[in-house]
Amino acid sequence: MNSNVENRxxxxxxxxxxxxxxxxxxxxxxxxxxxxxxxMDSAEAVKAMFxxxxxxxxxxxxxxxxxxxxxxxxLTSPDKPTILxxxxxxxxxxxxxxxxxxxxxxPETRGDRLYGRGTADDKAGIITHIAAAQQVxxxxxxxxxxxxxxxxxxxxSGSAGFAEILEKHAELLKCxxxxxxxxxxxxxGVPSITTTLRGMSAVNVTLRSTKAPLHSGSWSGPLxxxxxxxxxxIASLADADGKILIPNFEDGLVPPTAEELASYRSLGYSEKTxxxxxxxxxxxxxxxxxxxxxxxxxxxxxxVVTTMEVGSRTNAGNVLQDCAYARIGIRLAPGMxxxxxxxxxxxxxxxxxxxxxxxxxxxEDGANPFVTDIAHPFFKKMSEAMKEAYKTEPKFIGxxxxxxxxxxxxxxxxxIPILLTGLEDPECAAHGENESxxxxxxxxxxxxxxxxxxxxAD
Length: 458
Ligand SMILES: [Zn+2]
Known about the structure:
Elements: H1 2-24, H2 37-53, E1 56-61, E2 69-74, E3 82-88, E4 108-110, E5 113-115, H3 119-140, E6 146-152, H4 162-168, H5 170-173, E7 177-181, E8 192-197, E9 199-208, E10 214-215, H6 216-219, H7 226-235, H8 258-265, H9 271-278, H10 293-299, E11 302-309, E12 319-320, E13 323-332, H11 338-352, E14 358-363, E15 370-371, H12 377-390, E16 395-399, H13 404-413, E17 418-421, E18 436-438, H14 439-455
Parallel strand pairs: 3-6, 3-7, 7-17, 8-16
Antiparallel strand pairs: 1-2, 2-6, 4-5, 5-18, 8-15, 9-13, 9-14, 10-12, 11-13
Helix pairs in contact: 1-3, 1-14, 3-14, 4-13, 12-14
The protein binds zinc ion (ZN).
């Protein structure tokens, strides 16, 4: 039976690549300063694919932004389990277009990878769901599981309306498990299920000392410099090794179990690989020893200044600036709470403000960390399906990034299994230039999901 599945998917694979290319050609960037017509076009294209596959109840679920989430279903029988299949059809901007070796929205195959914005993140996820669903329907008919699709339209711009969509349509979306195909494999050819995600938040800080910029010769000395003041405040957030110094910041943090640590070690991730994948400069030392790199990425909080602004480089002159600005991002480990951490960061910055400078702080919407319990039998079934498809043992891994949807599914549906899979890999450059998808894993991913659906028929 399994080789039959493999053969069928192998025969249809060129068709699946074509469908993926069709979606990649639509620049569906969900950021406000890009033309939102394309997000609508990609929603329509996904809708047309569902219609062509013969799915029912196809509709747009609209958040306040108007960027449609596309819904469809393929129902078999009320006695069969219902799986909700998540992916997103919006993409990141292309960043620096000059650095792309081929046009970002004109997919191009080079070697065993398909290049183009959205190939890996996350349009391959959409096609994986559609292809696997179609296969299981042809193979099992009404004996297969019930499948519901939810393809979001604003994940990259922060999923601002997703909580509302889930709440409003909770009955329509009701399910026994969710597959979120928006993560990735630990390495090429290494199938992976992600079990933890870090949470995130960010604050925007503006520090002001005078009403306007001043001649630095005539005025500096008696007046404090907002740029240096802000730098001192930022420097007080963490020590040189990144250890966060805000009191009680790590409250609630759930450290990895001995079993989880052993599974991280079993991945054999070396400092050399990490240095190579991150592009860190040769002489720069890491803040943790080799054996703690994955734990640091997946299970500890971090703090990063994502932007700083004082005056501008083009107008750099002898000026005492009136204000300084920074955006400070935090990543939170499982167990920590995004709102509570952002508030602690805000209070700490206010307490550190020197010389009575005027400080204003704006907290962005955050996302809580996510952790899933792999004891549910669906994890075993998915892991066996992956082993069959990839011909190697799957890995349970963590992820340093955040997917707000994962925690929202938990909130909406309670303690059901949420399987985080996907087709990114360390070379895929998601969010960067020259994003690409490793095609052998695309095929194996479709086989794995098909075998997983088939395992639910028993
Ligand atoms: Zn994504």
